[in-house]
## 1
Amino acid sequence: QVQLVESGGGLVQAGGSLRLSCAASGRTFSSYAMGWFRQAPGKEREFVAAIRKSGGRSAYADSVKGRFTISRDNDKNTVYLQMNSLKPEDTAVYYCAADQTYEIYVVRGARRPDYWGQGTQVTVFS
């Protein structure tokens, strides 16, 4: 089992930046591939970004490529999502996720991640 706690959400003007953090506890953090999802009101939860267990190559949704960066610090048991050039359409609850299999984040039709955080609200106004 792993517990995930997101932080860093808030209210930001369009064009601004936020850095989300997800602190993990429980099982060894490095055993998990990590991801970020988001869900806007009335919409399905969608994939945002994912990173492999040891870092390195990452994957991003087309809607955030070039603007968002996922990273992790396994010594701190934390994964980050740096969000730049924010747009109103980025407004959503952002969820941190953990799974032992990286491929579920990037393969179409794959199952949902095994573990989720409680979410943190990001609101972008124009």
## 2
Amino acid sequence: QVQLAESGGGLVQAGGSLRLSCAASGRTFRRNAMAWFRQAPGKEREFVTAISWSGGSTAYADSVKGRFTISRDVAKNTVYLQMNSLKPEDTAVYYCAASTSGSYLYRSAGAYDYWGQGTQVTVSS
């Protein structure tokens, strides 16, 4: 019914930039927040950033503050993740998520109802 599709992943050198996109399709749905999570091999899925759909308020993990920026285009039903000053430790599969009722301040994966398939981001040194 609702699909989230990430794109924009790839290979980049340390210090470089990358922009991820997450396009929602299918039926119209109400959402309070959209977010990006990431998961490196052998590690837990971790919160990266979230945005309030209506107001655009944002929250960031400490590890990405000042380097990553989340934004959304309501008309295009799309959320973006601009990643600058990338580090090798940013290497992970990045997942887009949407919450129908949760606040953008929630950082638990369990607060999100819809998930994309993920896109690989690899940062080389």
## 3
Amino acid sequence: QVQLVESGGGLVQAGGSLRLSCAASGRTVSSDAMGWFRQAPGREREFVSAISWTGRNTYADSVKGRFTISRDNAKNTVYLQMNSLKPDDTGVYYCARRVLTTIATSTYEYDYWGQGTRVTVAS
């Protein structure tokens, strides 16, 4: 199996930045697509960003221009640089991995999930 461990969450003031990391271990395949999702209290888990093994990426409209996803295939690690954070960005952020190479935006399209890292943006 593949294990995913997120890190980098914390408390930040509105307008600040955080960099999340997701390290994969186990039977990892660098060509697998990776994604970031988040879940705020009382809300459904929502798509944030995804990236293919070649670097092709996509973002939710709510984070375009503020977040940047990247990956280091040699380290089996994906990153999410979050800038200009807003209180609405608050939530638990999860990284996910799918066995296919193409990016996807729905939770059911991913096969492995991390435990999540909490991000709190204070107004």
